[in-house]
Amino acid sequence: MKKWWFAIAGILAYIIGVGIYFSNRIMYMKKKETDYIQNREIMAKRLIREDFDNLPKTEIWVPSPSGYSLKCLFIEPHDTNKWVVISHGVTENKVNSIKYMNIFLKRGFNAIIYDHRRHGDSGGKTSSYGHYEKFDLKAVIDELKRRKGSDLHIGIHGESMGAVTLLLYAGMLEDGADFYIADCPFSNFEDQIKHQLKLEIPFPSWTVFPLGRTFIKLRDGYWTNEVSPIDYMKNIRNPVLFIHSENDSFIPASMTAELYAAKEGPKQLYIAKKGAHAQSYNENPKEYEDQIDQFLKLV
């Protein structure tokens, strides 16, 4: 009888241990410190601190429907109704968004950069890879419209998780921007997790994935298969520019190809020749901006 109890206890310990470890990896992915991001961007000459400090900006705290506040900077150097919202990736924060913001400032847009939940100065305890973040993005868009009126020309640019967030916002909540730029998104969260598991563990993903997804549901309130932009592309009617690096090993470029194929109506695809994950602009800045110029003619 004792052997049975030991066996049962061992199985339970395995289930709980794997479930907690897996869900912790997803919910609490290690973030980069702001000083690290800032120094990295300055060293690469993608951030000139004096130029950024001299921009007219307003600090806005936007209430999230999930009960915390989102730190936003409204950057407004132009007298225009053209705005772009920049949505950063997991582990980054709004400092990483500055280089993308600058692309649009040069083209006569004003901009919003903000920290996603659990990142930078914003509240929130977990990252959900677009599930809860899409509601936060809507809150930011709503605040922009409340402050500046409804007669706006709005674009959203997102990198990695930020790209997934904008696709889920546009496909599940409202097609509320005039254009979208999705840089290196995944097409389906479960496929992305399984892809990473193949790279990280020496045994099949089915031995841990069902436990992990169940613990995410128990601890963070959603199923990973709910985070699936590919399922909602048909709802996005406004133009989308899809971007990916062909050498991205973290999120395969094939996922962006799937999203592009599923998108009906105006769209554009740019597969960068150089760069790892989320490095398309860093490694191909001129081509990246040329693609945006070409895309903006659609909108």
Strand and helix layout:
Layout: H1 2-27, H2 34-43, H3 49-54, E1 57-63, E2 69-75, E3 82-87, H4 98-105, E4 110-114, H5 133-148, E5 153-159, H6 161-173, E6 179-183, H7 189-200, H8 209-220, E7 240-245, H9 253-262, E8 267-272, H10 280-283, H11 285-296
Parallel strand pairs: 3-4, 3-5, 5-6, 6-7, 7-8
Antiparallel strand pairs: 1-2, 2-4
Helix pairs in contact: 1-8, 5-6
Keywords: Hydrolase, Membrane, Transmembrane, Transmembrane helix
Transmembrane segments: 6-23
InterPro entries: AB_hydrolase_fold, DNA-binding_regulatory, Hydrolase_4
Q: Unreliable segments (pLDDT under 50, ≥5 consecutive)?
A: none
Give me the secondary-structure category.
alpha/beta
CATH architecture classification name of the largest domain: 3-Layer(aba) Sandwich
Topology order in helix (H) and strand (E) letters: HHHEEEHEHEHEHHEHEHH
Biggest β-sheet description: 8 strands, mixed
- Total count of domains: 2
Terminus-to-terminus distance: 71 Å
Query: What overall form do the CA principal axes indicate?
Result: globular
The CATH topology of the largest domain corresponds to Rossmann fold
The CATH superfamily of the largest domain is known as: Alpha/Beta hydrolase fold, catalytic domain
Keywords: Hydrolase, Membrane, Transmembrane, Transmembrane helix
Domain Serine aminopeptidase S33: 81-192
Organism: Peribacillus simplex
GO molecular function: hydrolase activity
